[in-house]
Amino acid sequence: MSLGKRLGHERTTRNWSQKIVAEKIGITNTVLSNYERDYRDPDTETLTRLADLYEVSVDYLLGRTTNTSSELVNEDKAFFMSKIATEFPDIDLMFKDMESLTAEQMEEVYDYIKYKVSKNK
């Protein structure tokens, strides 16, 4: 299945219009239509926003895996939450809203905390 077909499939399974998806990720519905019809490919940033919106991995959208990967994304999030909680138990208290972060954002938080802690040693 092509990237465009996967994008269209994810959108239609949620009963979302192209206009709604386009507004959510900051593009026009014409551009989204071109992606879904395989006339154009999204840039990396747009592809990432689409994957985050649909709660799937970029690998799934690109056809590199058939697993929609919401499980993998959740595993990544759980991994980084666990790392933060284990390595920085006091800092974990500051992040009551960590569940709402993407796995990528959690990795950035983890890397930043690790960097800041190492600078203070």
What does this structure look like?
The longest helix has 18 residues, at 70-87. This protein folds into 2 domains: 3-67, lambda repressor-like DNA-binding domains (434 Repressor (Amino-terminal Domain), Orthogonal Bundle), CATH 1.10.260.40; 71-119, no CATH class. It is mostly helical and 121 residues long. The protein has helices spanning 3-13, 18-25, 29-36, 44-54, 58-61, 70-87, 89-92, 103-119. It is elongated and about 50 Å long.
* Overall spatial form: elongated
Average pLDDT number? 82
* Overall CATH architecture of the largest domain: Orthogonal Bundle
Name the helix and strand elements from N-terminus to C-terminus, one letter apiece: HHHHHHHH
Helix content: 55-70%
The number of helices is 8
Distance between the termini: 51 Å
List its salient traits.
single chain; mainly alpha; elongated
Short structural description:
The protein is mostly helical. Helix content is 67%, strand content 0%. The chain has eight helices and no strands.
What's the SSE blueprint?
Blueprint: H1 3-13, H2 18-25, H3 29-36, H4 44-54, H5 58-61, H6 70-87, H7 89-92, H8 103-119
